[in-house]
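Narrative of activities, Objective 1.

The group set out to show that a structural description can be obtained from nothing but a protein's sequence at a throughput compatible with the screening campaign. Below is one input-output pair from the validation batch, recorded exactly as produced.
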Amino acid sequence: MQSDGEIGRPQAASSRSDSQWTRAGDADSSSPVDEVRIERLSSAADLARVDVAPGFAAITPSADLRTVLAGVLEAGGVVNAAMRRAILVGYTADLPFLPIPFEGGQIIRRWQGLPDARELGGLEVARPFRGAGIAQRLLTGLVSDARLDRIILIGEALEWHWDADTGRQSIWEYRDELLRLLESAGFRRWETDEAEIEYSPANFLFARIGPFASDSSRRAFEKALMTGGLPR
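Output recorded for this entry:
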């Protein structure tokens, strides 16, 4: 069974206002999946021509997604988008590691100082379009990008983002399915004592080391996995 799962970091949420898309999205979901194409969004102009389908909720609600993706692009990120006509029905994004705003300050993340590292900042497919292999196609498109061949791409799988409350799976079944999906795209799970990963036993850290990543970048990443290896 294909996982069209959700991974990523919490984003600011607001009330959903995607009712204008609900009927169209439900109708479109029965159309052949080969009408969905994968394309790369790398500028505000690219994003401006995109409409957002209903059914995004695990990471960022549909109503807020355009604003969040604009922030990703502004920060130097790239969005891989699953598009049906002009409607975004799934996405994944990679971007530089950034501090996390928290209570008027910032949380500095241990991965920020790593050379040649980027964050896999999200992966989600809108609910009406799940189960058709779109997440697999998004990840395949992501890792086929030559600009990431020298990059260590790191992600945090956090169970509070997993849309496993639909009755089809338990958290642990969902976790196993998500891990298989990531492994199929060249990612692997890594042990770490990073606090957010340790917050839940279901959470896990995953990374893909690009085929041309330097030995020094790899060593820096492996050293940073445990607190004792962080620079003082």
